[in-house]
Amino acid sequence: MRKLRGNHLTKLAMALSLALPLAAVAQNPTPGTNAQRPAQSATDQSNAGAADTTKASRSDTKFMKEAAMGGMVEVELGRVAVQNAGSDQVKQFGQRMIDDHGKGNDELKALAQAEGVTLPTELDSKHAKEVQRMQKLSGADFDREYMKMMLEDHHKDIKAFEHEAQKGDDPEVKAFASKTLPTLRSHLSMVEQTRSALGASGGRHSDSATRPEPSTDTSGQTQR
User: Pick from 36, 48, 94, 222: CA 20 to 30 A from residue 18's CA?
Assistant: First the structure.
């Protein structure tokens, strides 16, 4: 009987000696396992927060991206105008587009960065094709088509900027639209004056612009 009790106590002691180290391991996990999980979780949360840092609303974001694209187009077409235009007045207008829209583009970039909005950095295929088409024109043909395009573009731009200035969500974006509107209206006025000076009507030269100058014969009478 004593011998049986001795064997039982021996087995119990051995079981306890094995159980104690396992309990210690469970309370103190080894490095590289569960200890790293909180850090990984924090990193995941940080990445999740960085995935969406946009402050502007969807409509404000759309406005800024479209304004950036429009501004780049105006600058590129202005450069073509300086090179290809036949009229000095059209060349001067093209340079004005480079200066004003270039400045506006820089202001918009700073605003977009503060709002967490990524703007386009190059022309999309549609607008690139427009620039390429205009590069093939020169002289009076270019002047005619360019000023017609500028008339349409600035009417659309003014409408879009007025809408943003009145109904935009973000105060900073609304302020940018309001600040830019006087410049756009000034451009539109220049377009209308230039088209009038070119004798343009509906995007085409007037009869006086295309009709040959009358000549005078030796008898002093005017020929037409």
Answer: 36
Identify the segments of the chain with pLDDT beneath 70.
1-53, 200-224
* Total number of domains constituting the chain: 1
User: Domain with 104 in it: what CATH number?
Assistant: 1.20.1260.10
Is there a domain that residue 97 lies in? yes
Q: What is the mean pLDDT of the chain?
A: 80
* pLDDT for position 15: 54
Percent pLDDT > 90 in the chain is 63
Nearest of 165, 203, 159 to residue 185 by alpha carbon? 159
Work out the widest C-alpha separation in the chain, in whole angstroms: 157
134 neighbors 80 (Cβ within 8 angstroms): yes
Q: Is 182 exposed, middle or buried (0-12, 13-18, 19+ CB in 10 A)?
A: exposed
